[in-house]
Each structure stands twice: as C-alpha cells, then as structure tokens.
Amino acid sequence: MTSLEPLEALRDAWSALCDRSPRATPFQRPEWLLPWWRTFQPGEPWVLAIRREGRLTALGPFLLYTKDGRRTVAFCGGGISDYCDVVTDPEGEDEAVAVLLAHLESQRDRWETGDFEPIPDGSPLLRGAHAEPLDVCPFLALPERVEDLGEAVHTR
C-alpha cells in the first residue's frame, strides 16, 4: 500500500492482528501509526500486508524516504516510537516474515539502504541475523494487582 486510504480501510483487521500478536506494542498499532503518518508525512508509505484465506496475518509498516541522498526503507513511526517492528500472527510467523523479506529484496530497485531501528530484541526479522544492541530500553515489570505495587516500586 502506498497511500493512507488503503491503510485506513485496513484499520480494523490491522488492530485485530495486533491483538493476536504477543509482541505488538502500541507503536505498531493503527491508532498510533495513522496519526503519526498524518502528522509527520516523512516520505512515501510502503506498507506490506500478507493475508491467508482472507485474514490479515502480517503487516510490515514501512516507508520510503531520502536520507543523505539515498532512497531508504524504514519503519513508519521511527524517531518518536519506542520500538518499530513488523506485526505478525503467531501462527505462520516464520513463513510470513520470509515473504516480507523476500518482497523487500525483490524491490531493491526502489531503495538503496535500510534503516530498521529501533527494532526490539526478539523481533522475527532478527532470526538468523547478527544484531548488536544500540540502546537500552529500561522497563518495570508491574504486578497484576495494584495492592502489590509497593513490592515493585519503592515508596520514595
């Protein structure tokens, strides 16, 4: 998809895919990326969607833009999102990621370089790849019950 209209039309299926994906964060959801796109418009949308039997099973929210004079493929949401990544249904994830990567490779005439950060550790895109951490993303595991919050967070 290379414009916002088909992305808007995909909103419900995209949201449902995020609900099924155990790694999806708020930064891969249409509720974040569609307003991000309308606000910043950093380049040309290039969103790859995979369907199996009519159901959306993977989404690569990419864009194309010029960086240092080179056509660059990157994730939508970059710059102000904690993590960017593909969204995949756990069932058939490896196959879907292989198809996304093959499509990117087959379209090398559209881009010269890739900028896929910040990508989280554990992304299916990193399987079998050598990757080194660039940033630290601290987190706090919160208890299920608010009554137990004092054990996770010091009162000071």
Fold topology:
Layout: H1 4-9, H2 11-20, H3 30-40, E1 44-52, E2 55-67, E3 70-75, E4 87-88, H4 93-106, E5 113-115, H5 149-152
Parallel strand pairs: 3-5
Antiparallel strand pairs: 1-2, 2-3, 2-4
CATH topology: Aminopeptidase
Along the chain, the helix and strand elements come as HHHEEEEHEH
Count of separate structural domains: 1
Mean pLDDT: 89
Structural write-up:
The chain has 156 residues and is of the alpha+beta class. It has one domain (4-130): Gcn5-related N-acetyltransferase (GNAT) (Aminopeptidase), CATH 3.40.630. The protein has helices at residues 4-9, 11-20, 30-40, 93-106, 149-152; strands at residues 44-52, 55-67, 70-75, 87-88, 113-115. The model has no long low-confidence stretch (mean pLDDT 89).
Give the tags.
156 residues; Aminopeptidase; 5-stranded mixed sheet; alpha+beta; 5 helices; globular
Summarize the structure in short.
By secondary structure, the chain is an alpha+beta fold. It has helices spanning 4-9, 11-20, 30-40, 93-106, 149-152; strands spanning 44-52, 55-67, 70-75, 87-88, 113-115. Strand 2 and strand 3 form a beta hairpin.
